[in-house]
Design brief:
Layout lengths: L1 H31 L2 E9 L4 E8 L4 E10 L5 E7 L2 E9 L1 E7 L4 E8 L8 E10 L5 H4 L8 H69 L6
Antiparallel strand pairs: 1-8, 2-7, 3-6, 3-8, 4-5, 4-7
Length: 222
């Protein structure tokens, strides 16, 4: 009886592990169906960069961008698809934009720095494409309704991790902005300090030459 009990407990543990692995596979399968992309890049003055993504029909798209550093923190942004303007902003510093695709098409995400003549700019953007995670329960096996609570918990954890990742991106952007500002101020302080040191050395040399010229003058004997 003791051996049978141990065997039963082992089977129960094995079944629990298999159930957990199955649920994780189901959730991961739903997650990998989405497209998640983040990118930080630099733009020269009068430069225009475009990124292309083929997006299927009836999908939710989340587009987020922010000018991290450079100039007045403004840039021109546009989204084009099928010859139509989906989104357009002029001199924008950043925004979150959500839209729903009606047809499968190649979407064009463009950033333009033509408004700047000398300013380089650092831009961050993220693109999330995919169906909502609420469809996980509908895709589950009808014979596994007992796993609904586990699926809901894992889905909640997944959504929380997505929020944490989004907040981490926001903090990275802020850190990059302040770091670049500090580096810029440091370089300007070094240049100013060097210029002041040269001016002080020049004034000291002039004073020294002038004082020596006073002592080198011959006395007037008349």
């Amino acid at each position: 009886l003791l051996c049978f009990f141990c065997f039963s407990e082992k089977n129960k543990t094995t079944m629990n592990v298999l159930v957990l692995v199955s649920v994780l596979a189901l959730v991961c399968g739903g997650v990998t169906a989405n497209t998640d992309m983040e990118l930080t890049f630099e733009m020269k003055p009068h430069e225009k960069l475009c990124f292309y993504e083929v997006i299927k029909e009836d999908l939710e798209v989340v587009f987020d961008y922010q000018v991290v550093y450079g100039g007045k923190l403004d840039i021109d942004v546009s989204i084009m698809a099928l010859g139509q303007v989906v989104y357009e902003r002029v001199r924008s510093s950043g925004e979150d934009f959500n839209f729903h695709t009606k047809k499968e098409a190649e979407y064009q995400f463009c950033f333009s720095n033509k408004i700047s003549t000398v300013s380089h700019k650092t831009v961050y953007f993220s693109l999330i494409v995919g169906e909502d995670d609420d469809d996980l329960a509908e895709e589950a096996d009808p014979h596994a309704q007992a796993l609904t609570q586990i699926e809901t918990s894992i889905q909640s954890i997944h959504n929380a991790l997505k929020r944490v990742a989004s907040y981490q991106s926001y903090l990275r952007n802020r850190e990059a902005f302040h770091r670049l500002t500090a580096e810029f101020m440091n370089s300007r302080v070094q240049l100013t300090s060097g210029a002041e040191a040269l001016v002080l050395v020049f004034i000291s040399i002039v004073q020294l030459v002038y004082i020596r010229s006073l002592f080198n003058e011959k006395p007037n004997r008349f």
